Amino acid sequence: MTIAPGSRLGPYEVLSPLGSGGMGDVWRARDPRLGREVAIKVLPEELSSDRDRLKRFEREARAASALNHPNIVTIHEIGESEGRAFLVMERIEGQTLRELLLDGSLAPRRLLPIACQIADGLARAHEGGIVHRDLKPENVMVTKEGFVKILDFGLAKLDRPETKAASLTELPTESVGTAAGVVLGTVRYMSPEQASGKPVDFRSDQFSFGLILYEMATGRRAFRRNTPVETLSAIIRDDPEPIGSLNPQTPTPLRWIIERCLAKNPEERYVSTRDLARDLAGVRDHLSDTTVPAKPLPASARTRRLLWPALAGILLLAAVAAAFFLMGERAGKNPLPSFHRLTFRRGHIWSARFTPDGQTVVYGASWDGKPVQLFSTRPGNPESVPLSLPSADVLSVSSAGELALCLGRHSIGPWETKGTLARSPLSGSAPRER
User: 180-203: string of b/e by CB count within 10 Å (b at 16+)?
Assistant: First the structure.
């Protein structure tokens, strides 16, 4: 059977080609029964008799059709015409994320809404026990209105205990348009466990998503090497170039999220993709380019404020004092400090420290009598972002970005506290007690 514009697939009128990949060709078509346009993925003729490929194709239909989410493509029907299996899905007007990235990195105000929608769609799939396993910019569509759709669950795996991991003994397909490969996935967006041939779960998608976020933030691929073999080796063993050195304008909380997604050990990534989505939403909702106008304070007012730690919940005096000290050192004099309101919540601040970028403040606070928790903020942000760590207070931040923490800090007497010393990277992985 030859497919060409003007031919038919079952009741559908084929209009024009949309794309091609190892799992099939995609055509724009019209459903005359409902008077709407659809997209049809057709399994290649030479693979129609391949039982394993046909099973994977049918699994795409079952997996994707079971997901009812605005950020996941809607599957209408699976059918067959003259021995050719096909999948009918909604037609999406827009660009792939790959096309959006052709001009380089995206500004945070453009990046974060897209990232949050991808994370929401992934979280829904993972909650349904489905792992995508081939997440990449080519499989993400963005409409003119800014809505995001995740495409192509053709490599999805039903994440059930009885499902065995697929054999990963040969090199995967390099990109869309190559011949159908034996190994599932695309080299440049594989997780270390996927590249090593180990079983994968939802955390593998988190790594692939981290690679996409890295590319959106920097305009560069995290692991770009000359050959697929070298790329696989880099994914397994190497760390990507720090985001701050490629794009210093990337918000620090977003860097931490990306670094956590790109942890080599799946145990150091997010326990739940829903938590990842919440963290991204927090950065998006608190992103602001405005600053609060500041007025110099006389020395007597500064003294009174430094003597009353109860006001730290409003001004984070420790952080401001540190900023004043650094500015004074650089200028060689002691100008009057300027104060920025960093939080509008009331409570007690245990301590605060600047991160190596000199712009982000990490602090431990106890709001409304609750246990102390770690937060991060930047001058100009209307609110702080909670870190994904247990109850802890920050003692110091090293030049390498590692936190020294006091876990479970609590008062045992006037001006005396007690807790457990621990270390944790800024990415927010589980603290290591000392």
Answer: beebbbbbbbbbbbbbeeeebbbb
How does pLDDT run along the chain (434 residues), one tens digit per residue? 567 788 888 899 999 988 776 567 888 999 999 889 999 988 777 666 777 777 777 776 777 778 889 999 988 888 888 777 888 988 988 999 999 999 999 999 999 999 999 999 999 999 988 899 889 999 999 998 999 999 887 555 544 333 333 333 333 343 333 333 334 567 899 999 999 989 899 999 999 999 999 999 999 999 989 888 999 999 999 999 999 999 999 999 999 999 999 999 999 999 999 999 999 999 999 887 422 333 444 444 444 444 444 444 444 544 544 554 555 555 455 555 555 666 767 677 778 888 877 778 888 887 766 778 888 887 766 567 788 778 888 888 887 778 888 887 766 654 566 788 888 887 666 778 87
User: pTM higher than 0.70 for the full model?
Assistant: no
Contacts (Cβ under 8 Å, ≥6 apart) of 49: none
Counting other chains too, the contacts that 420-425 makes at CB distance below 8 Å and 24 or more residues apart are 421/395, 422/392, 424/389, 425/259, 425/401
| Cα separation, 385 vs 235, whole angstroms | 30
> Would you name the residues annotated as active-site residues?
134
- For residues 417 and 395, the answer to whether their CB atoms sit within 8 Å is no
Q: What is the DSSP letter of 102?
A: G
Give dist(CA 318, CA 365) in Å, integer. Answer: 12
In the chain, domain spans: 8-90, 94-285, 299-433
Amino acid at 241: E
Read off φ and ψ for residue 363, nearest 5 degrees.
-145, 155
Cβ 301 vs Cβ 391: under 8 Å: no
DSSP state, residue 41: E
For residue 337, which phi and psi values (nearest 5 degrees)?
Answer: -75, 155
- Between β-strands 172-173 and 183-186, what pairing exists: parallel, antiparallel or unpaired? parallel
Q: What secondary structure does DSSP assign to 77-89, as a single string?
A: EEEEETTEEEEEE
The CATH number of the domain covering residues in 94-285: 1.10.510.10
**CB < 8 Å & 24+ apart, contacts of 321-326:** 322/352, 322/353, 322/354, 323/354, 326/354, 326/358
Burial class (CB in 10 A: 0-12, 13-18, 19+), 414: exposed
- Return the CATH number of the domain spanning residue range 8-90: 3.30.200.20
